[in-house]
Amino acid sequence: MKQPGMNEQGTDEQIGIDSILPPRLHRSDEDGVLSDYQGYLHAPVTWTHERDLEKLWNRKHSSRLGVGLCVAGSPRRHFMISNVRHSIDWARSELEVLIAELEQTTDAVVGAATVGPIETATDDEAAGPAQN
Fold first, then answer.
1. Which of 5, 95, 105, 112 would staple 55 via disulfide (CB 3.0–4.6 Å)?
2. Where are the domains of the chain?
3. Higher pLDDT, 129 or 57
4. Which carries the bigger pLDDT value, residue 82 or residue 115?
5. How far apart are CA 92 and CA 55, in angstroms?
6. What is the pTM of this model?
7. For the residues 30-51, what does the mean pLDDT come to?
């Protein structure tokens, strides 16, 4: 019997973040602290939208995302986000939002440019109003 999130072969179809590691070091520039995060994304072996996810992230943020390809039939893909000005929780949340956005448009996606108009925003704008 097919379970939710599983295909007919019983393999997981869900796309999500397996883990994000705390940054090993922080750098500072005139605008504040920058961190690099790395972790693992879980996606079906047949999922081929790594570049689309990178393009969505890179258009929306001043930081950069790189996602590895599927290797040896493993559903785990290594990723790295560089020059992030926010917390690890923010990075995870933002990746999950973009994955959901990409999943909604997967049928139409040939490249991230087909996803629709994407307004460039700074990471501060994307994070929303400051919390006190």
1. 112
2. 16-110
3. 57
4. 82
5. 17
6. 0.69
7. 90
